[in-house]
Design brief:
Layout: E1 9-10, H1 17-20, E2 23-24, E3 30-31, E4 48-49, H2 54-63, E5 69-72, E6 78-79, E7 87-92, H3 100-114, E8 119-123, E9 139-140, H4 143-146, H5 166-175, E10 180-185, H6 187-202, E11 208-213, H7 229-248, E12 253-259, H8 266-273, E13 280-282, H9 296-307, E14 309-315, H10 320-323, H11 341-355, E15 361-365, H12 368-372, H13 378-396, E16 399-400, E17 402-407, E18 410-415, H14 416-419, E19 424-425, H15 431-440
Length: 448
């Protein structure tokens, strides 16, 4: 199925009612401590459609069947846990991403001030902090400890990649008396969270696990946005502006910028749209060749013949077939080891024009780690605040094995198995990529 968003294509079957059903720990019999006069409690009869236009909706209307829809996020009038008895745990996993500290702060503030939770445990360095012998012991999180953390980049708790033993991690949760674990991370983190849920269920423990989507590349399924993406686009635009200045400052100057995007080109595409000086945008979803009449290098040569400068933006996952002469390699976590396409293109540009005896001045810029470690911008910061609040609401209401997402302009609950079943990609036929082609003026296809 192709998603309804102009932003992406999601190659996955339309989910059925069972796949959209969010798991719970049990009946909600505790009255929420939130003030009913100032809290818009969720109407449990409402749902957020997975489709968003009449063409996709028509088959359900004509058959008289209920279209697929997500459970809405938000505060519930009745909750599962007695707040005063709750101990919550927070863990941040994967690579750094703008907004991690904003999410931590939102979780702590909401747990403390909205629900009156007295004890919040932060596990250090990702799931490694839940191992039998963690690198660092857990820390107590309080509003005072997190009051200004959102102004800083990185993660207050630290982070790490890679799986840990689920049984050991649940042992740790039990040892610390955790009732709700709030896991911040991408698809690998969510898969780990799902494994935790399975072990918790095997032991018949009343522990909820709620995910908050963190993928700077914005490629997680069934959420239009993930936090960190807006900051990445904004900062990527600044790198492109620098590349443009460098390119214009030299005869046949080429400013080459590599941006994040292992499997999806959202950051590269949107940063290019935000900067009208980009002449070529290369993304994983659109293959290209180096040479041949329609290849990238001849196209770049035509640009330099005409204007004597060019700006090229490439997503880190683009062109991997060109680098993969020795075959694909994978790391211990099962992630594809990407070759450095930025360095590869830099060297190929120099080689190609050198063989033509055409002088070029290539300036290569890779701002990836700078961007990942920055504080969130205002758009991401606000988004993180809302994600954190809704994750706490979900956890207190006994939801588990789910992630808070944003779809059709609403915050939603997405079961983790559905969230990790497919990856969201830039749609080569969609409005965003077509806008990039018009803005850059690059050939529609750079393959034979």
């Amino acid at each position: 199925m192709e998603s309804t968003s102009e932003f992406a294509v999601l190659r996955a079957p339309t989910p059925g009612a069972k796949e959209l059903e969010v798991a719970t720990l049990g009946a909600c019999e505790v009255e929420s401590p939130l003030d009913a006069r100032g809290t818009p409690f969720v109407d449990e009869s409402r749902r957020i459609l997975t489709v968003s236009d009449t063409v996709e909706l028509r088959p359900y209307v004509e058959s008289g069947s209920m279209p697929p829809a997500f459970e809405p996020a938000g505060a519930r009038e009745r909750i599962f846990f007695e707040p005063a008895r709750v101990t919550a745990g927070i863990v941040t996993c994967g690579g750094l991403c703008p907004g991690l500290n904003d999410v931590i702060r939102s979780l702590v503030m909401t747990l403390t001030y909205a629900y009156g939770v007295q004890r919040i445990v932060g596990f250090c360095y990702g799931y490694a902090g839940l191992a039998r012998e963690p690198i660092e012991p857990p820390v107590e999180l309080t509003p005072k400890r997190v009051e200004d953390v959102h102004q800083k980049g990185g993660s207050l708790l630290g982070t790490s990649r890679g799986p840990q033993d689920s049984a050991e991690m649940v042992d740790t949760l039990e040892r610390h008396g955790i009732d709700i674990l709030l896991a911040v991370g991408g698809d690998g983190t969510l898969r780990g969270a799902h494994a935790l849920v399975a072990e918790i269920a095997r032991r018949k423990l009343p522990i909820g696990v709620v995910g908050i989507p963190k993928t700077i590349d914005n490629d997680l399924a069934w959420t239009v946005r993930s936090f960190g993406f807006s900051t990445a686009v904004e900062e990527g635009r600044k790198a492109i502006q620098g590349a443009h200045s460098e390119a214009r400052g030299a005869w046949n100057g080429v400013g080459l910028v590599k941006l994040m995007g292992r499997h999806a080109g959202f950051i590269a595409a949107h940063a290019s749209l935000a900067n009208a000086d980009v002449n070529f945008c290369l993304v994983p979803e659109v293959p290209f060749e180096l040479e041949g009449e329609r290849g990238f290098l001849p196209s770049l040569r035509r640009r330099l013949d005409e204007k004597h400068h060019a700006v090229v933006v490439v997503a880190e996952g683009a062109g991997q077939d060109l680098l993969g002469k020795t075959g694909a390699e994978y790391d211990a976590s099962g992630n594809l080891k990407l070759g450095d396409v930025g360095v590869y293109l830099r060297d190929e540009i120099r080689r190609y024009f050198g063989e033509l005896s055409v002088p070029v001045d290539v300036k290569y810029i890779d701002p990836s780690y700078i961007i990942r470690s920055l504080p969130a911008n205002s758009v991401d910061s606000e988004f993180c605040l809302m994600l954190g609040q809704d994750a706490v609401h979900a956890g207190m209401a006994g939801r588990t094995d789910m992630v808070v997402a944003f779809w059709n302009r609403h915050f939603t609950h997405v079961p983790i198995p559905l969230a990790v079943a497919a990856r969201k990609e830039l749609d080569p036929e969609g409005a965003i990529w077509q806008g990039v082609l018009k803005a850059t003026g690059q050939p529609v296809s750079m393959t034979v």
